[in-house]
Amino acid sequence: MATALAFPLSDNGHEVRLIGTHLDREIIDTIKERRVHPGLDLEVPQAARAFQLEEAFDGADVIMSGVNSFGVRWAGKQLSSLLKPGTHDLSIAKGLEARENGDLRILPEVLAGEVPEDLRDQASWSAIAGPSIAGEVAVRRDTCVVFAGRDAGVLEEVAGLFRTPYYHVWTSTDFVGVEVCAAAKNCYALGAGFMEGILDREGESEARYRNYDYGAALFGGEPESKAGKG
Hints:
Layout: H1 6-11, E1 16-18, H2 25-34, E2 36-37, E3 42-43, E4 48-50, H3 53-57, E5 62-65, H4 72-82, E6 88-91, E7 96-98, E8 104-106, H5 107-113, H6 117-121, E9 124-129, H7 134-138, E10 143-149, H8 152-162, E11 167-172, H9 175-201, H10 212-217
Parallel strand pairs: 1-4, 5-6, 6-9, 10-11
Antiparallel strand pairs: 2-3, 7-8, 9-10
């Protein structure tokens, strides 16, 4: 997704510096050699180039973390030595981290938590919530997302860098609410998908009557009423 977001950014005339972790060497090497992202199977924009980690941060205004949820803490530790005061930091990974006391933390807070407090307080922390699919963004299909954070002015500034006629951005200062919904939607999507899986199992994938009652029940959760039978 981080590479896909290079498309709206480059369409708006911005320079994009792509970096990878030690697990992304094949991707970075392919982009350097052929300018093609092997996962997307698409040529990256001319305004996007692959860099070494330290070089990419020099003079950067916005830092975007595209690692998955398991790599968020690692990414935060890398940022702790590379971030400059006043940068805008965007997180893409979705999920919640469970703490030992049972509390949950949104991943942008986990990312920021690895950065020294004085530097953390001088940066802005935001996140992008979908749903969106990287390949569709990269081929410029219409996509709607929410940029969430605590500073409305910063959100509008950063969102303006990304907005295009196909990449539509809303903003919200309900940081926790947006991030929780972005993570929970995947659980509901999996549950709703079962309604089709059940039909496939029964050999009724082409049946006239679907399993919409089952899918809708996931969003209700009320006990069955005796009066409703019949």
